Amino acid sequence: MMVSNVTEITFWAIDGPSVLTGSSTSNIRRINHIAKEDTSRFSQNLTMGSVNFNDETRSVISDVGDIGNVDFANDGSFYNYDQGTEGPIIISAPFPLVEGKPQFVAVNERIFNPVTIRNTTTEAVTLWSVEIYDSKPKDCFTLSVMEPPSPDSDDQSFVESFSLEDRTLLPGKTLTIWLSCKPVSKGLHTTAVHFNVDDDRIERMGFIMAEDKISRSLTSNKPYNRPRRNKPLLPKLYTPGGDNAGVKVIRTSRPAKATGRSYRYKLSEYVIPKNIRDMIESKTTPDALMEGLSRKNYVAFFKTLIIMEEMKLEDDMRMYDMQNVTLRRKYRFLALEVPGLAERRPSLVQGDFIIAKPSSQNEDNAFPLYRGHILRVEAEEVHLSFHDDLHSYHSEGDRYDVQFEYNRLGMRRLYQAIEAAGKLDSDLLFPEFASNQRSIETRRLTPISCSLNEEQTRSVEMIIGCRGGPPYIIHGPPGTGKSVTLTEAILQLYKNRRNTQILVCAPSNNAADHILDRIVKENGVEIRKGDLLRLNAQARSLDDIKPDYLQFCSYDDEEMIFSCPTFENLVRYRIIISTYTSASLLYAEGLQMGHFSHIFLDEAAQASEPESMIPISHFYKRDTVIVLAGDPVQLGPVIFSKDAENYGLGRSYMERLCESKFYKNGNQNYVTKLVRNYRCHLEILSLPSELFYQSELISCKEADTLYPLSWKDFLPKPEFPVVFKGVQGVDEREGNNPSWFNRIEASEVVEVIMDLIERGVRGHDIGVITPYRQQVIKISKALETFVGSEIKVGTVESFQGQEREIIIISTVRSTIKHNETDKRHCLGFLSNPRRFNVAITRARSLLIAIGNPHIICKDEHWNKLLWHCADNDSYKGCFLPEKEDNVVDLGSETQQDNNTSYNWDGDGGDQTNFNGGDDNWGEYHPQPPAGDNNWEDYSTRIPDGWGGADNWGDGVPGADNWGENPTWGEHQHPAAVADNWGQDSPEIAAEADNWGEGSPLPVPGNCGKV
């Protein structure tokens, strides 16, 4: 690349920077730092110039360290010979890459590499000098004309320096010099070497990745094999609800635990109408979506979105189809190995179905199919139960073709809830059209909890004084006391209103248990055993709930499962606590609309609108008080289908209401905003307050609870408990798993934790958040090996609603392509504001971010965190990028306001439908934590009670009926969804990739908006 009329040149010599002014460059033929085809996309990052050496000037790179972010696999012109730009002097690449990545070397271990300079001309050329132009870290590379001695050599004659001078290279001859590096710290080491040949300057870059024993222990022994993006589908054995004419299916009998129970309200099959299925498969947008959401088409609109989601799940399950596989006996069941099961989403879970056909049978439908179900999932093996015939006839070595189906129970409950919602008052669904504005008369409150502030007290008074109408909303960021407020309101009603009956729902078992814990532990009110029920799904493990709370649960000791009490017993409870989806069991048992005087939906921003409708549509009557609590600018619903998400399924009922003018005006009769934060240190709170909460948050944390003096000196600046540690690692993948990990960052995380523990910090006070499931596994493994302390490591989703004294964030990604499209895909998980918001608001006393500053600075929110630390002298680590012009304008393409498009495991699937390049930036699949058999904690599709008696064989097609009336979009009535979609670990579904999804449906501008 030629540079002329350069008026100011900044360069880094060995002893520091210099500035030349008034120089002009025009007579140098070649600079090999960038090939011709690369110049346009790098011109903003690199400023280069070269002049005749008689002028004693140097070529210039404005930030040689930026080379550390090069996409090694596709930008070879940075470090290799390019005949088109260099001509006949051939200089080899120092430290050639291995499989597209820098060579690894142990910290404090010397590594050296020969560099050859070959003269292919017929004339002698003068090599005026070879010099190290710049190194990062400084002075970490050296040059020598001698081969460096071995580590145990006593040779004293070896000499190395930063430059070599004046040699003549004869025609056809080759000169070998040696480039050495002895890294003193972990991470990427880079150097630029200048070769001044005659009147030309040629440049070469060298890269070394230094690792320590921790990072080396995490080295993968399984090379990455990129999964095929669009796996060809095997012939379909059976279509649930489809045309299966002539196919004989032998189904397994129901487990004993699902028998002997008859619900009052049956759950219809809700088979997907063929015309709607055909439209979606052909990428034709159904009319209900083109019209946008309105009161008139509310039912049809959301039913269509649920269909899109269900069809996406159907397609994703086809990834598990296999032919000619063997089943082996295991106890009373059959076991099947499913390669890659732990790495994909949606995963197979307990209650899903399997169709099996002996591989020897032909396809003329003369032989039956066996339809069984999954009893247990262990790593990459599933335990199966079929009809007794198959178990009896099966012999070891028999081979089968198999097809999996997800359990439709969850979807059927969503369809049912939306149908029921069609009969709700318009004021509830679209309150802006409410004919009457309510005015609540409040009475002075005597708090049960002495810790209520002004806003909390007012909201409790409003809830107690409220009589039906649109939902009352309590919203605010983490740590502002939303759960405290809900608990106070529930206890006030229980204590002072004898005729109240209260339903409390949460999106996960953990969240529901948290509410139970608060209610039971409040000293101001004694809850009688017969007044409170904690309703659990049958599939929930007994070990998953605290023994002290079993007294509030309905548990069948004989069948060893949780159960739903009978109607006669349910009506006696004053307070019932459940997940959103388990609430449908109450309707199935016969509880009527209006049975509950108050319905509280906690973490309402995390549930899709159809999920929120499960408790509301079944039990709301005109005088019922609905209370929604949550934070609509943190994580929301977990959606698999990109199209359904874009049309509005990814937006919660609470968020939709908060965006309406009716609630935006802040009318205290309908909404309270909590702004007093009791969790975070002021400096931890200041950035999210500025970015997401209009700078309204007030830090109320007591100064003497901020952090112990024993580890206060850990901070670069004692009064500023936010630290950024810059590490230039390398992101890697292994095996068939497209989830990323970064061993260098994992090592840094472990070292930080070891330092904190030595200072007296307890392991359970530390949490580690990272976007990719593989990084979760690597960090967990390293902690188990080197620390042994019980420290929670998880994704952002697994930390929502939780907090720790100290939070450490590992951002993982450390390589980026230098064009804007690929920056978007690489940064996808990072550039989701909601995940960023959740991640940085989990810490009470100390927040530590670990990552590559040259990568994260491309996103505006992470860039602000980086410079928030740097400007307060709280940055450690590798050199910083320039402060200006770092941020990539990701615009609407990243859907920054959408909480599931770009996933923190996350693992990976940025869900961008990106088809370019081998690396498929951001692509990932999650896997469950190693050794965790509590499948409900990370499954998004575990059914409530296996479908109970309301139809074992949930996915078996019945009449093509939507409720009792086949008319599309008509308003019929409901019953119960899988416990749960995103219930305990919504990150799992968020990580689903769009394999085979194709181009998205067109989205009208008004879709999903009121």
Automatic annotation (TrEMBL):
Main EC class the enzyme belongs to: hydrolase
Listed Polar residues bias regions: 893-903
Principal subcellular localisation of the protein: cytoplasm
Keyword list, A-Z: ATP-binding, Cytoplasm, Helicase, Hydrolase, Nucleotide-binding, RNA-binding, RNA-mediated gene silencing
GO MF annotations, alphabetized: 5'-3' RNA helicase activity; ATP binding; DNA helicase activity; hydrolase activity; RNA binding
Catalytic reaction equation(s): ATP + H2O = ADP + phosphate + H(+)
Chain intervals for the UniProt region annotation (Disordered): 218-237, 893-915, 977-1010
Listed EC numbers: 3.6.4.13
UniProt xrefs under InterPro entries: DNA2/NAM7-like_C, DNA2/NAM7_AAA_11, Helicase_ATP-bd, MOV-10-like_beta-barrel, MOV-10/SDE3_DEXXQ/H-box, P-loop_NTPase, SF1_C_Upf1
Biological process annotations from GO: regulatory ncRNA-mediated gene silencing
Superkingdom per UniProt: Eukaryota
Residue intervals of the Helicase ATP-binding domain: 448-656
GO cellular component, as recorded: cytoplasmic ribonucleoprotein granule
Compartmental location: Cytoplasm, Cytoplasmic ribonucleoprotein granule
UniProt xrefs under Pfam families: AAA_11 (PF13086), AAA_12 (PF13087), MOV-10_beta-barrel (PF21634)
Family designation: Belongs to the DNA2/NAM7 helicase family. SDE3 subfamily.
Name of the protein this chain belongs to: RNA helicase
